[in-house]
Structure formats: structure tokens, C-alpha cells
Write the C-alpha cells for this entry.
Amino acid sequence: MPTPPEYHAAVTAAALFDTSAAAKLLLAGPDAPQFLHNIGTNDVSGLPLGGGCETFFCDARARALFVAWVYHVRHAGQHALWVETTPGRGEALLKHLDRYLIAEAVELADVSARFAQFHVAGPTAAAVLGAALGDAVPPLAEFQHMERPLGGTTCSVRRRDLLALPGFDVVCPVEHA
């Protein structure tokens, strides 16, 4: 059976995937980092601006219910946490988080429909993305991210080796996709 051209491109150069179906939540407010830290499995409260990590949200028996990727971002001029999870799981994760909100100053919002997302993967992904941005992509550790202008808007560029290949997620408002 011949190798599919998409696979060949991904392992030898770069391939582009539309990952817009990923569920996207935004948590804002002064208690958001500590809130997620308390109910997730990773140290979210210590994330620097531009940092990110993988975390899991579990039930009372420590069974993983959701895998998520959390990024410390600036949104509307304030610090916020962008929480991404698997497609179709945003509403359930939002309900799960809301269930544990008691007196914390945290605002939860599902922003999935407002943002498109693409994943560029492969050995030349950084060069391909740099050409699209008109500027070289600086070396980023996995889950580090930055904002860059692209297509008339500001996009979030995140290092994420989703396919065990060097890769980047590009997230932008859906109207600029």
C-alpha cells in the first residue's frame, strides 16, 4: 500500500491540519490560576505569561475525565487562562468546572465557536510558519506560546508536538481563518 501524500509531507517537510474542532474555554479573574491548580493535575498557578502545560481533570476517585492544555494568555488586557480540550468535550468540561466554583472570582466562557485553529507539523514546520508570518519563529519549548500578526489579525502561535513531530498550533478569530 503506498504511503499517503499527507503522511509523507508531515514526516519529511510540513503538513497543515485544521484542528478548529478542539473545544476552547477561557477562564478570567484573579482566582482562575489557583482554581484550576486546585482541581487539575498540574501546576497551573505557576504558569508564566506565555507558558502552558497539559493537565487532567478527574472525578472523586481520581479517574481522568478530561485531558486539557492550559495556556496563560492576555485577553482584553487582563491575565486569563485558555483551556483547550478534545473536540465535543467543551460543554461537559465547562459544567465540570462550574460545579466546583463556589466563591472564587472566576469567569468561565466557552469560546470554541469564536476561534479557528490550525496545526502545522513536520521537520520544516517552523520555517513554513515563519514564511507565513513574515518573521522567523523563535525557538519555543513545548506549550510556550506568543502572539503574532497574521492575515490582518493577531494570532496565538503555540508550540505543540501533537503528532510526535515538531509542531505549532495557530489560533485566530474565525473570521480571519
Notes: The first strand starts at residue 15 and ends at 18. The beta strands are 15-18, 23-28, 52-58, 64-75, 78-85, 107-110, 115-121, 145-150, 153-159, 167-173. The helical segments are 5-12, 32-39, 90-100, 125-133.
